[in-house]
């Protein structure tokens, strides 16, 4: 949406093609109807192989220029060596995409566009990144129409996503930010945020134009702003009467911060616990926070009636991983979040934890080209005992339910030993859907909303990669 906004601002046209559930002939027909000059793909690691193959097939039919951006090309720009890839974009793409389109349109050389690696015959031109965008207010509001035209059901959904800033200074080993910050070293301030007025203006514009009752503020860490910004935001956001959720960190929370969040209309927050073992949390994952800070955060949020989701990692690259996972479960039971979310850790090569897993024999794949598209329902780590791996994967599916109903904890050894994978997967997505769309979002649901949520759940389950259950 952000790229489309600057592209349209530059006088060009864009269209988003949703390829899910489309056969190649259907995709071919839609591409032919639009007849684009450029194929632009935003890809994450794991799904990139699908788009590389799709692009390769499309390039045989069309003479469009192809460029890949997003997380995977940013950290693995060597993908430009793949057949059919003309360029990759590293990092922020707003400036680079406009430079590229303008030069292609005028028939000028594209060799020296910063942020881009360009394929020129057998040669790869590797341009350095340009400075980070300093003034986020200078960017146009994201182009939501490109998304809603492609997926009308998202337009009708009453919760909408917003970003008030960019950047995160923390060094969490499993996250992309520490590697991203290395790419942009000495290229500007990592932490940037929009003015309160600019941010709220976007929210009000969306409220005016679309079905909208709840804001999902998805900054990595919403609280990385001066106290004055938060105070101004609390006053002005309160006037909109729009409730929202945001992401926080326990080490940034105090009574005054929670008070301001509540005043602004904060209905819910998300924050990472990640691991119940304090030593592993801080040494291996580099979360840099104590159990005491986590408990204090939970107490303050409950005091101010702000509901919260805890985020946790399962199947870590450590000895006796399942034992550590159960400690994480127990810590969550003590915290009593409104939703205990768990993810299976993926040690992406290039991240600190990916390098650690490779070095210590927990991970064997040096390239994610070796990994098929995954829905992250299974672990890619090497376990000394295959049964322990299976138990960890089952724990992942029922983690939230056990935190919600703690009496189940005493039966955990039995529950994760039972071969009920399909049932647990259904429970996982059902509980996730309920907590995400009913419990954690504050807007009036109609019978048609519940029907749509139910249909979405079953459609998602139907399309899940069955390999995760093998």
Characterization of this structure:
There is one protein chain. With 470 residues, the chain is of the alpha/beta class. The chain has 2 domains: 2-126, Rossmann fold; 136-469, TIM Barrel (Alpha-Beta Barrel), CATH 3.20.20.70. The chain is built from 19 helices and 13 strands. It has helices spanning 2-9, 24-34, 48-59, 71-75, 94-106, 144-150, 152-156, 177-183, 196-209, 227-240, 255-264, 278-283, 291-303, 321-335, 352-359, 386-404, 412-415, 421-439, 447-463, and strands at residues 38-42, 65-69, 87-89, 116-120, 123-126, 159-162, 165-166, 192-193, 214-217, 243-248, 266-274, 307-314, 339-344. The protein has a 6-stranded parallel sheet with strand order 6-9-10-11-12-13, with helices on both faces. Strands 1-2-3-4-5 form a 5-stranded mixed sheet, with helices on both faces. A two-stranded antiparallel sheet has the order 7-8. Helix 3 links the parallel strand 1 and strand 2. The radius of gyration is 23 Å and the shape is globular.
Total number of helical segments? 19
Main β-sheet, spatial strand arrangement: 6-9-10-11-12-13
Structural class: alpha/beta
Rg, alpha carbons: 23 Å
Domains (count): 2
Label the overall shape: globular
Strand-residue proportion = 5-15%
Q: What is the CATH superfamily classification of the largest domain?
A: Aldolase class I
Number of distinct beta strands:
13
Specify the helix fraction band: 40-55%
Largest sheet: 6 strands, parallel
CATH class of the largest domain: Alpha Beta
Low-confidence stretches: 465-470
Examine the secondary-structure arrangement and name the CATH architecture of the largest domain.
Alpha-Beta Barrel
Q: In the CATH scheme, what's the topology name of the largest domain? A: TIM Barrel
The average pLDDT value, as a whole number, equals 92
Q: What's the oligomerization state?
A: single chain
**Distance from first to last alpha carbon:** 37 Å
